Predict the structure of Homoserine dehydrogenase.
Amino acid sequence: MSSPVRLALLGCGTVGSEVVRLLHAQSADLAARIGAPLEIAGIAVRRLGRDRGDLPVDPALFTTDPLGLIKRDDVDVVVEVVGGIEPARGWLVEALRAGKSVVTANKALLAEDGAALHDAAAEGSADLYYEASVAGAIPLLRPLRESLHGDRINRVTGIVNGTTNFILSAMDATGAGFAEALEEATELGYAEADPTADVEGFDAAAKAAILASLAFHTRVTAADVHREGITEVTAADVASAKAMGCTIKLLCIAARGTDAAGRETVSVRVHPAMIPRSHPLASVGDAFNAVFVEAEAAGQLMFYGRGAGGAPTASAVLGDVVAVARNRLAGVRAASESAYADLSVRPMGEALTRYHISLDVADRPGVLAAVAGVFARHEVSIATVRQGPAGGGSDAELVIVTHVAPDAALAATVGELRGLEIVRSVTSVLRVEGGA
């Protein structure tokens, strides 16, 4: 058996501590798979005196000098589970340029400036692996990066945030409002004390950028992703979706398309949407994640599992560690970044989608014709209309579902509707996906 492969672990929180435990519990199996034992050379933490319970590691391995640890000659692989943009970016660029392979779970950094990491990896002829950055333990990025490399992916649709999926699933199951479902998610540990990154879609947008980059061989950043959260989804929206045979999910959607000049483009967006209950993603409940991939030759593929948590994420981290360690022993490097397509990212206004619009309108003759005229002026075709009584005796509710149209035309339609005297309020606007 070869000499040990030595790891520098940056971070020892929820995920980092599980990495240490799995390394200890599976040391013999991991050594057999790699052809060499894995050893922890050091663990960089913020505070040395923190109680870490029964963590099976020598306390002498802890340090508050991550850069010094990275630069040590006896470190082969750097594992980063700290998160955030800086100082993590500087640490990883330093490691990669020095020829040390990097395994990271840092979705925010990859989505904001993955280019810096890939360029540093190319400069240092080092491996950069990041399976744990999207969908926890689900084997997803490597199939996109390797298994489907001989195919053409046309669309990726996913539920990639467990917190929002738990909240929306609870609203669907119980009829609760957003605030009540969020409170339950917080009590159960699914939501952070500050849930903004989850409920406003920032977490999902970062993951969408990573998925789109791999699927379409194009550098996509979080800034390219249209993002909307779930804070405006109401119990009435959920009930309306049920009436249509749908459920509401926070989706990340990345798809190929063409612009007005016929040039190929990609669109990447994150927003709540109604999907039919027959769709494979509709049954994904609780805090689970799932990603639905549509490829030309392989057809439809579904990846499903736990998308977060210490142990699932650590499982993905260790899978990458095994891969980079084996490459290092064999003297080879994994395939480099594939961004040859360099497709432009289409603005959200050009994305083709459908709207579900609920209106509180005056209950008098000519209202439906006036509303339909607004849709006609913006060249948006109406698929269905449902009318019923609203809260007031002189009001009525109109629920309109459109055919597919550019998002800009749909948004302009809603904007004009808000200005009509006969429209008391636009009570809800949701996109519809998946053929509902």
User: Anything to note?
Assistant: The first strand starts at residue 5 and ends at 10.
